[in-house]
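Q: what sequence does this backbone want?
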C-alpha cells in the first residue's frame, strides 16, 4: 500500500476550494508536510502499475507505472516537498486560487520525477505547465496576463516537440519507458528539444525572465522551484553524457550572468540567474560522469532552497514598498534589516561562499569539468558574475546605495518565518554536506571533499577580488531605465506578422461570408424557395480545411 505524494497533493489542493480561514491555512501547510512524511516512509521500487494488455487495440498494449522510486528521483522529490513547506508558510496570506494552482503545480512536479513511462510523464508534465500558468495569472495585472500567454505559447511548443518525439520513439522501439535514451535520430532530438525548453536553455529561455517577475510576490517563489528543476531531472534520466548539453550548460551559465548585468529590476535579475545556475546542472548532466551527475543533482537540491530564499527576499521588498526597480529603491536597511540578513544567506549560498550550501554543490560540478577547459572556464567566470550581481549589486542597490527613497517596514511574520526556514537549511547543508540531507541522497557514492584547503582558498580568492572590483565600480552598477532585448524579440516580431496575416485572412473570410449570404438572398428572391439562414462561418470552414490538409501532409 503506497500513496502517491503528487496525486495526494493535487487532491489536497482541490480541497482548499472548500475551506476558509485558519483551517484553510492549516491544510495548505499540511499538504507538502504530508508528502514529505510519505517520502520518509517510502522504499525504492515501482508503485501503481496499471496493465492494459487486455485491450484490443495493438498500440494500447502497455503498462503504466505511476511511480518509479529510485536514487535519482528521491533527491528531487525530497527538496520539492521541503521547499514547498517553507513556501506555503511564506504564502499563508496569498489568494485562495493561487494556493490551489501552486499545490497542483507542486503535485505535478512530484508526478514528473516519479513517472516511469511516457504517458504518465507527459500528463504530469503538461499539468505542471498549466498549473504554473495559473500561478502567473493569479496576480491579475495586465502584464501578468500577457506574460502568462507568452509563457503558455512557449510551453505548448515545447510540449508539442516532446510528444512528437515520444510518439516516434515508441514507434521505433516499442518501449514507453522514460529511461536513458539511445540516440535514435529524430525522436531523440525532439524529446531533447522538448525538455530543454523547460530547462530554459538559450535561446529557448526567454519565457523565464519574461514571466517570473510578473507573478505575484508569493507566486514567483513557487515558479523558481519546479519547472526548470523537473527538466534537469528529465535530462539526468534520459540524456546523461550527451556532449551537446555540456556546452549548452556552460553557455547558459555565462549567458544568464551577462544579462543580469543589464537588469534594473530585482526579480528579473534573479530570473536570469536561474538560467545561469541551471546551466551548471545542464553542464553536469552533459559531462555525464558519476561526480558530474552528483554535482548536477546536489546543485539542483541546493539551488531550489537558496533561489526560493532570494525571491522571498526580493518579494518582501515588493510587499512593503510596491517597487522592484533599483532606480526606485535604496536605503531600506534602516527599515528592514532582518529581511536583508535572510536574503544575504541566499546570496552567499548562490555565490558558493564556504559554509553555505552552494559551496558544496556548485563546486562539485566545476571540479568535474576540469578536464574540459572551455566548460571549466565559463563555469568559473560565471561564479564571479553570480556574486557580483546577486550577492553585491542587488542588495547594494536595494538596501544601501543611497538615502531612503521610500519608507518601509519588515514584511509579515509568516514571510520572515518561511525565509528563516530556508536560510537555516542553506547554512546547515553548507556546514554538514555529508549528513543524511544531501550526500547520502545522491545517485552515486560521493567521493568529493569540498573543504579541502586548496578549494577553500581558491574560492575565497575569487570572492574577495570580485568584491574589490565591485567596490571600485559600484557607482556604475546602479540600475538604469532601459529595455533589454533578449532572444524573444524574434518570435515576438514573427508573432506580430503572423497575427497581422491572420487578421487579413479573417477579413477575407468575412468578405467571403458576405458574398455567400448575398448570393443566397438573391437566389431566394429569384426562386421563391424558403432557405434557412446560412451560417456566417464559411470562411472558418475554409480555414479548417486548409489546416486539415497540412495535417494530412504532416502525417504522410
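A:
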Amino acid at each position: 500500500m503506497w500513496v502517491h505524494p503528487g496525486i495526494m497533493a493535487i487532491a489536497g489542493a482541490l480541497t482548499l476550494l472548500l475551506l476558509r480561514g485558519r483551517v484553510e491555512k492549516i491544510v495548505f501547510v499540511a499538504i507538502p508536510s504530508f508528502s514529505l512524511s510519505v517520502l520518509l516512509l517510502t522504499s525504492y521500487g515501482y508503485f501503481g502499475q496499471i496493465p492494459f494488455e487486455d485491450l484490443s487495440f495493438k498500440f494500447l498494449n502497455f503498462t503504466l507505472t505511476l511511480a518509479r522510486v529510485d536514487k535519482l528521483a528521491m533527491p528531487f522529490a525530497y527538496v520539492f516537498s521541503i521547499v514547498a513547506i517553507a513556501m506555503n508558510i511564506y504564502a499563508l496570506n496569498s489568494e485562495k486560487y493561487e494556493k490551489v494552482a501552486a499545490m497542483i503545480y507542486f503535485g505535478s512536479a512530484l508526478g514528473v520525477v516519479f513517472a516511469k513511462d511516457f504517458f504518465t510523464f507527459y500528463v504530469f508534465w503538461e499539468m505542471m505547465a498549466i498549473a504554473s500558468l495559473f500561478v502567473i495569472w493569479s496576480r491579475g495585472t495586465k502584464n501578468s496576463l500577457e506574460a502568462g500567454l507568452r509563457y503558455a505559447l512557449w510551453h505548448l511548443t515545447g510540449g508539442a516537440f516532446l510528444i512528437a518525439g515520444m510518439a516516434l520513439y515508441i514507434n521505433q522501439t516499442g518501449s514507453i519507458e522514460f529511461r536513458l535514451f539511445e540516440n535514435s535520430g529524430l525522436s531523440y532530438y525532439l524529446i531533447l528539444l522538448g525538455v530543454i525548453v523547460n530547462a530554459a536553455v538559450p535561446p529557448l529561455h526567454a519565457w523565464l525572465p519574461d514571466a517570473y517577475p510578473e507573478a505575484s510576490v508569493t507566486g514567483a517563489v513557487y515558479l523558481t522551484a519546479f519547472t526548470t528543476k523537473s527538466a534537469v531531472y528529465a535530462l539526468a534520466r534520459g540524456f546523461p553524457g550527451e556532449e551537446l548539453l555540456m556546452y549548452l550548460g556552460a553557455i547558459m551559465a555565462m549567458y544568464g550572468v551577462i544579462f543580469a548585468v543589464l537588469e534594473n529590476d530585482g526579480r528579473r535579475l534573479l530570473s536570469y540567474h536561474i538560467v545561469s545556475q541551471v546551466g551548471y546542472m545542464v553542464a553536469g548532466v552533459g559531462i555525464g560522469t558519476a561526480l558530474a551527475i552528483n554535482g548536477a543533482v546536489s546543485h539542483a537540491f541546493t539551488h531550489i532552497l537558496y533561489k526560493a530564499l532570494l525571491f522571498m527576499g526580493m518579494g518582501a521588498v515588493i510587499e512593503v514598498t510596491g517597487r522592484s526597480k533599483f532606480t526606485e529603491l535604496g536605503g531600506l536597511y534602516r527599515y528592514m534589516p532582518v529581511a536583508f540578513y535572510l536574503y544575504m544567506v541566499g546570496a552567499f549560498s548562490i555565490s558558493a561562499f564556504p559554509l553555505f550550501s552552494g559551496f558544496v554543490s556548485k563546486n562539485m560540478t566545476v571540479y568535474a569539468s576540469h578536464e574540459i577547459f572551455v566548460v571549466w572556464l565559463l563555469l568559473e567566470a560565471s561564479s564571479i558574475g553570480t556574486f557580483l550581481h546577486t550577492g553585491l549589486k542587488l542588495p547594494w542597490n536595494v538596501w544601501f546605495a543611497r538615502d531612503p527613497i521610500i519608507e518601509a517596514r519588515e514584511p509579515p511574520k509568516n514571510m520572515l518565518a518561511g525565509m528563516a526556514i530556508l536560510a537555516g537549511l542553506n547554512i546547515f547543508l553548507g556546514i554538514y554536506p555529508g549528513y543524511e540531507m544531501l550526500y547520502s541522497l545522491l545517485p552515486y557514492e560521493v567521493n568529493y571533499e569540498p573543504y579541502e584547503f586548496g578549494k577553500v582558498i581558491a574560492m575565497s580568492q575569487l570572492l574577495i577580488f570580485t568584491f574589490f572590483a565591485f567596490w571600485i565600480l559600484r557607482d556604475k552598477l546602479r540600475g538604469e531605465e532601459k529595455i533589454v532585448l533578449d532572444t524573444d524579440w524574434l518570435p515576438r516580431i514573427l508573432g506580430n506578422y503572423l497575427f497581422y496575416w491572420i487578421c487579413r485572412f479573417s477579413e477575407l473570410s468575412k468578405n467571403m461570408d458576405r458574398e455567400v449570404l448575398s448570393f443566397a438572398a438573391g437566389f431566394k428572391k429569384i426562386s421563391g424557395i424558403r432557405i434557412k439562414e446560412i451560417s456566417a462561418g464559411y470562411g472558418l470552414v475554409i480555414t479548417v480545411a486548409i489546416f486539415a490538409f497540412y495535417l494530412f501532409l504532416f502525417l504522410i
